[in-house]
Amino acid sequence: MSMDELRGLLNRHARPDMTTPIDGVLVSRVERSEPPETSMSGTVLAVIAQGEKRLALGERVHDYRAGQYLVASVDLPVTGHFVGATRERPALGFGLVLRPEAVAEVLLSAGAGDVPREPGGAAPGLAVSDVSAELLDAVVRLLRLIERPRDRAVLAPLVIKEILWLVASGPQGAAVRQLGLADSGLSHVARAVRWIREHYAQPFRVEEVARLSGMSVSAFHRNFQAVTAMSPIQFQKQIRLQEARLLLATSPGDIAGVGHRVGYDSPSQFSREYRRQFGAPPSQDATLRPFSKSVGALS
């Protein structure tokens, strides 16, 4: 019954921008299957109530469907699409933005023996599991509060903490717990990811980024690959090409200039790598809709 109620709540409260009156809570309704599109995942818990979505991160492919949830613990470049969504049977999803400070608060509230021990190394940045009955019940109770504005301010934070604890202590809890730990392997990789995203157009030496993230070069390579499914250089290339696709929407007549702005000195290399990534040359894509910057794990 809870899954039926969840679908009803998502149908009633879906908006084009996915937002709800509860901060950090998102609702998604997709009525048709589009071609795979590149976006940033965001740091989010995404629960699918109806339909199926496929996400690719590097060479890893994650499928998740009704009754499952995905955890994205680092904001990563992903390519994804909903499978088989129609107006008659739309894909429906719930999202909760994962904030490190909120996860840390939940972990600090738990007893010392109640928090599972951390595995060695960093956990993958994307992971999929089945939704437990307890987690499903908590998500439904949170969405009910959209229709109860008098109770929302008091009860919503409590239910969000419950959801965070259920996920942090569940099968994919390692990724969520590391999000809230300041000195975890994942937090060090997230520091490197932020630096690369902010300086994507400039060349860098892996040794320098490893030092900035507080890891040895060998540990940095190992943990970065575990979290992102890519090497640091591959990650930088993904960010460059995504930014180029956005820039082409505003500067369609300056393909060489866009390539240079995102870090390519060679127009031919830019065109070649762009075509390999998106399946079309920059000249063709300049006239098309750019990739979405929404929460890619959900929308």
UniProtKB/TrEMBL annotation:
Q: Which InterPro entries match?
A: Homeodomain-like_sf, HTH_AraC, HTH_AraC-typ_CS, Tscrpt_reg_HTH_AraC_N
> Which residues are in the HTH araC/xylS-type domain?
190-288
Q: Which PROSITE patterns match?
A: HTH_ARAC_FAMILY_1 (PS00041), HTH_ARAC_FAMILY_2 (PS01124)
Question: Where along the sequence do coiled-coil regions lie?
Answer: none
- Name the UniProt key words of this record, in alphabetical order: DNA-binding, Transcription, Transcription regulation
- List the Gene Ontology MF annotations in alphabetical order: DNA-binding transcription factor activity; sequence-specific DNA binding
Residues covered by region (Disordered): 277-299
Q: What is this protein called?
A: Helix-turn-helix domain-containing protein
